[in-house]
Amino acid sequence: xxxxxxxxxxxxxxxxxxxxxxxxxxxxxxxxxxxxxxxxxxxxxxxxxxxxxxxxxxxxxxxxxxxxxxxxxxxxxxxxxxxxxxxxxxxxxxxxxxxxxxxxxxxxxxxxxxxxxxxxxxxxxxxxxxxxxxxxxxxxxxxxxxxxxxxxxxxxxxxxxxxxxxxxxxxxxxxxxxxxxxxxxxxxxxxxxxxxxxxxxxxxxxxxxxxxxxxxxxxxxxxxxxxxxxxxxxxxxxxxxxxxxxxxxxxxxxxxxxxxxxxxxxxxxxxxxxxxxxxxxxxxxxxxxxxxxxxxxxxxxxxxxxxxxxxxxxxxxxxxxxxxxxxxxxxxxxxxxxxxxxxxxxxxxxxxxxxxxxxxxxxxxxxx
Length: 368
Hints:
Elements lengths: L21 H5 L21 E3 L2 E3 L3 E11 L5 E10 L2 E10 L7 H12 L6 E7 L4 H6 L22 H12 L6 E6 L5 E8 L5 H10 L3 E3 L8 H7 L3 E8 L6 H17 L15 E10 L4 E5 L6 E2 L4 E6 L7 E4 L4 E7 L3 E2 L4 E8 L10
Parallel strand pairs: 5-6, 5-7, 7-10, 8-9, 9-11
Antiparallel strand pairs: 1-2, 3-4, 4-6, 8-10, 8-16, 11-18, 12-14, 12-17, 13-16, 14-15, 16-18
Helix pairs in contact: 2-7, 5-7
């Protein structure tokens, strides 16, 4: 398979309005390509500055980071809300809508910000509810050039639109934090059980993943160009939270996300611990696999998210649009259902159901 003709050389980067922020100015130097050299997260006591705004202790500041000039001549900006606590502590960022059609995370961040009070916060929370502002406006996963932002990190000052946005996010958000929570949903008509994906072999990352207490957690393979891969190379402890499907609010997934974020803040000593008994432990998976269609047709499934299944258990079947011929769809191994397609029209080879194998024998269904 060929990749097609090479793209023409990128023009010199267009400069946004002038700023006196030295970090933002450094990110705009012509010819600078590759990952920013700010690999060590700043000390929690350092002054917090994003773009051209300082965030004083005990305050919340709204910042608009210029991303690109529109056809109309105006600027499209990245909306950021930064909360600097009255006491020193870690810095954590929250982001959502890296894929523009994934909305649950935006609502999770809105609800978390409604709870947090900078006067009672230790450290800083930097919230970016919509990262892919281009895709969000168009209600699509991608940017206008059809690139996937979550395959474009750490970005480039002279690259594509996706690369430049990724670079801005790395320099202005990731480089200032030691922790992050990246909020997602399923893609392409797929819905996900609320789950954490993280590098669980790292003790501190595992600790905050267990504090989040999503119904399921596992170490998914890192994808080159993803925010998770770029953050781990910088020594940042990052959780990826997946719940629900694109362009839909999933109330259970949103509530689990809000509660999980607040528990992580409590585990880091940034916020008071929530009242009540501790949540059940997450179901931990050692691997996950998609069950794919053996034929084209209409997919009927009976499995539910979080449902435990046995090896070779029938989870559904495929039929033609007419007649009674059926092709069974079976589980590849014992585990739980963590995702499925909500589109019944399938081609041979399409992903139908996502099944996770337990790191230990499941004693109960995962919580939904």
